[in-house]
Amino acid sequence: MKRIGILSSHNGSGFETIQKACEEKKLDAQVVLVISNNSDALVLKKADDKNIPNFIINSKKYPDEDLDKKITKLMIDFKIDYIFLSGYMKKIEKNLISTFENKIINSHPALLPNFGGKGMFGDNVHKAVLEAKQTVSGCTIHFVNENYDEGEYILQKTLEIKDDESVISLSNRIKHLESIAIVEAFQKLFDK
């Protein structure tokens, strides 16, 4: 059984997707650790409710420590096989990347390489897609490397943009698509 660690800054909808897939035996895995940089993140309560160990690691709590090394050590201590970024709003640093090479996974709410990079997250992405008059959007599940949204793709899923699409409607449709894609991506990785 694979052991998954989650890095999340807010609600942790990706965490919920993975947790549900594990509970329903769609994934031969379990979420064993949740780390957030935000002490008010809802994902911490969700992890608590599932009795999953969770930690807050940020510069406010640990002002004189190397946060990258602290996160990496926790991931090693919990014997993590894969790390999933569930709306994690911090850049992943080199120590974690080198220790967990091709084991850190992110879901991006657009078809990379378009609409990716610094600042391209959440509604910013959907707004840019609509302003660019795209007819198709989707999501990309990819490995994380030292550059935003440039890691190797695991899979992409697409949907057609409707004529009356709004940022909110596109966001909701992509979130649903991502919940399917995240599980499929992990199934693909586990089958290797």
Describe the structure using short key phrases:
192 residues; Rossmann fold; 7-stranded mixed β-sheet; single chain; globular; alpha/beta; 2 domains; 23% strand; 7 strands
Which helices and strands occur, and which strands form pairs?
Elements (H helix, E strand, L loop, with lengths): L1 E7 L4 H11 L5 E8 L5 H8 L4 E3 L10 H11 L4 E5 L7 H6 L4 E5 L14 H9 L4 E8 L9 E8 L6 H24 L2
Parallel strand pairs: 1-2, 1-4, 2-3, 4-5
Antiparallel strand pairs: 5-6, 6-7
CATH fold type of the largest domain:
Rossmann fold
Proportion of strand residues = 15-25%
> What is the helix content?
25-40%
> What is the succession of H and E elements?
EHEHEHEHEHEEH
Number of helices: 6
Low-confidence stretches: none
The side-by-side strand order for the widest beta sheet comes to 3-2-1-4-5-6-7
Specify the CATH class of the largest domain. Answer: Alpha Beta
How many domains?
Answer: 2
**Helix/strand structural class:** alpha/beta
Largest sheet at a glance?
A: 7 strands, mixed
- Full CATH superfamily name of the largest domain: Formyl transferase, N-terminal domain
Q: Overview of this structure, please?
A:
The protein is an alpha/beta fold and 192 residues long. The protein has helices at 13-23, 42-49, 67-77, 94-99, 123-131, 167-190; strands spanning 2-8, 29-36, 54-56, 82-86, 104-108, 136-143, 153-160. The protein folds into 2 domains: 1-101, Formyl transferase, N-terminal domain (Rossmann fold, 3-Layer(aba) Sandwich), CATH 3.40.50; 106-192, Formyl transferase, N-terminal domain (Rossmann fold). The protein is built from 6 helices and 7 strands. Strand 1, helix 1 (13-23) and strand 2 form a beta-alpha-beta unit. The mean pLDDT is 97.
